[in-house]
Amino acid sequence: MIRHWLVVGATGGIGTAVARELAKRGCPLTLIDRPDSEHTLAENARDLEVRYQAEVSVAMLDVLEYDAHARVLDDAVTAGESFGVVLAHGVMWPQDELQRDSQTLRRHHEINATAPMAFLERAAERMETAGRGQIVALGSPAGDRGRRSNYLYGADKAALHCQLEGMRHRFAGTGITVTTIKPGPTRTPMTAGMDKLPLLAEPADQARRIVDGIEKRKSVVYTPPVWWPIMHAIRHLPRFIYDRLDL
Ligand SMILES: NC(=O)c1ccc[n+]([C@@H]2O[C@H](COP(=O)([O-])OP(=O)(O)OC[C@H]3O[C@@H](n4cnc5c(N)ncnc54)[C@H](OP(=O)(O)O)[C@@H]3O)[C@@H](O)[C@H]2O)c1
C-alpha cells in the first residue's frame, strides 16, 4: 500500500475515522479540510501524533476553491513522490430544498461532484509523474439507482462513480489504482437527526473495512458488504415493482 495519504474532509465523521485507521497502520498523513475546521483539524492531527506517533501535517482547502487545488497538492507532496488521496468530504442537503432552489442545487453538485472531480484530475497528473498512486473516493449506494427521496444527492455520486470508473480504465495496467467506496448509512454529522436509517454503521467499523479495501487495491468497496447484494437487487428490480416501493 502507498504510505503517504492525503485525506480530504479529514474532520468529517468518516474522514476522521479513516485518517485514524491509516495512522494506526503507520501511514504518514496530510489532513485536509475547510478553513472553518482549522481548529478541529489541528486537534485531530495532535491526537494522531500522540496516539500513534504518526507523522501528520494539515492543509486548509475549501474544494470550491478550484485554483487552490494544485497549490495544496504541491505543498503536501514532493515532486515525483508516490501518494494516495482519500476524498471523504461531501454534503447531503435536504432533497426538497435542492428541488426548489437552483443555486443551492448548483452548489451541492459542485461540492460533491465537479470540485472533487477537478481535484482528482490534478492529483492524477502528479501520480502519473510518479508512476504510482492510489485514488480513493467516497461515493454512495445512492448513486446506483435514483430514488425519489434523494436522487439529486444520488446524481452527484453517480457522476463521481463514472469519473472513477473512467480513471480505473485510463490507469489499468499502470501503478495507479482507483477505488470507489460505497458506504451504507453511517453514524456521522451528515446523518444526525435522520431516523429510520437501515443497518446504521459506526464510522470506526466503516474505516477498518475501507482501509482493508485500500490495502487490497479493490475497485469498488460496499461497506458493510451486505450493501452489494442489496444494491444489486435494487438495480435490477423491474420498474413496475420499483415504482411502488417507498424508498
Ligand atoms: N454518513 C453516511 O451515511 C454516508 C453514506 C454514504 C456515503 N457517504 C459519503 O461519505 C463522505 C463522508 O461523509 P460523512 O458522513 O463523514 O460526512 P460529514 O461528517 O458531514 O463530513 C463531511 C466533511 O466534508 C467537509 N466538507 C464539506 N464541504 C466542504 C468543502 N466545500 N470543501 C472541503 N470540505 C468540505 C466537511 O467540513 P466542515 O465540517 O468544515 O463543513 C466535513 O469535514 C461524503 O462524501 C458522503 O457523501 C456518507
Mean pLDDT across residues: 97
Largest pleated sheet: 7 strands, parallel
What is the straight-line distance between the termini? 38 Å
CATH fold topology: Rossmann fold
Biggest sheet strand line-up: 3-2-1-4-5-6-7
- Going by helix content, strand content and strand pairing, the class is alpha/beta
Overall radius of gyration: 18 Å
Number of domains: 1
The fourth-level CATH homologous superfamily is NAD(P)-binding Rossmann-like Domain
Distinct compounds present: NADP nicotinamide-adenine-dinucleotide phosphate
Helix proportion: 40-55%
Compute the number of strand runs. Answer: 7
- What is the CATH level 1 assignment? Alpha Beta
Order of SSEs: EHEHEHEHHEHEHEHH
Structure overview:
The protein is α/β, with parallel strands linked by helices and 247 residues long. The chain has one domain: 3-Layer(aba) Sandwich (Rossmann fold). It is 47% helix and 15% strand. The protein is built from 9 helices and 7 strands; from the N terminus they run βαβαβαβααβαβαβαα. It has a 7-stranded parallel β-sheet with strand order 3-2-1-4-5-6-7, sandwiched between helices. Helix 1 links the parallel strand 1 and strand 2. It is globular and about 55 Å long. The model has no long low-confidence stretch (mean pLDDT 97). It binds NADP nicotinamide-adenine-dinucleotide phosphate. NADP nicotinamide-adenine-dinucleotide phosphate binds next to helix 1.
Record keyword descriptors for this entry:
single chain; 247 residues; alpha/beta; Rossmann fold; seven-stranded parallel sheet; 9 helices; 7 strands; 15% strand; binds NADP nicotinamide-adenine-dinucleotide phosphate
